[in-house]
Design goal:
Blueprint (H helix, E strand, L loop, with lengths): L2 H4 L4 E2 L3 E9 L3 E8 L7 E7 L7 H22 L8 E7 L2 E7 L3 E3 H8 L4 H20 L2 E2 L8 E4 L5 E3 L6 E2 L8
Antiparallel strand pairs: 1-2, 2-3, 3-4, 4-6, 5-6, 7-9, 8-11, 9-10
């Protein structure tokens, strides 16, 4: 899949230069980009909400609200933990919604296991202990990730710390109503 297949401008919002396509999921396309307005030209991840191919306005609104909630969660959590990507921007252009977040240089836990095979017990314990600290923090804010899997855990190159990514399926525990 290429950038042309997804139809996104080379320079988004007159600021972000798209470098490559990182992935395409059910509701979002994800890109690696460079922030041209930062002296460092820092890299970032841009998530573009796909248009909902459904004429149901309520479904479209629900998807947009979930995307906006992911941005709000990153804004709340990312700045306080270096194991959650920071939110850099959230904006809309001609009915397209974008979320710009910190790029984590590394590989997913899934990629590492596919590349190396099984991890040692000590490596697994180290990853789990570090992840539990992040999850304790996330849960203390009344948030549940709901999609923890090896593909949503980045192992940062600089320090091998696990970083929890993809907060698209989060659920806020506050105000949850149980149906009997």
């Amino acid at each position: 899949m290429s950038q042309e297949d997804i139809k996104i401008p080379v320079l988004l919002s007159e600021r972000y230069r798209i470098i490559s396509v990182l992935g395409s999921g059910g509701f979002c396309d994800t890109f690696l980009a460079e922030d041209t307005q930062m002296p460092s030209g820092r890299r970032c991840v841009i998530k573009q909400l796909k248009p909902v191919n459904n004429n149901d306005f309520q479904v479209s609104q629900l998807v947009q609200k979930r995307f906006q909630r992911e941005a709000a969660i990153l804004e709340q959590l990312g700045g306080a933990s270096n194991q959650i990507p920071s939110l850099y921007a959230y904006f809309q252009t001609v009915e397209q919604f974008y979320l710009v977040q910190e790029w984590i240089d590394g590989q997913t836990l899934l990629q590492k296991v596919q590349q190396r095979g099984c991890l040692s017990e000590s490596e697994v314990v180290s990853i789990l202990i570090s992840l539990l600290e992040v999850l304790e923090y996330v849960h203390s804010k009344g948030i549940i990730h709901r999609d923890i899997k090896p593909d949503n855990i980045m192992l940062r190159s600089s320090d091998s710390k696990p970083v929890l990514i993809d907060f698209g399926a989060v659920r806020e525990t506050m105000g949850t109503v149980l149906n009997t």
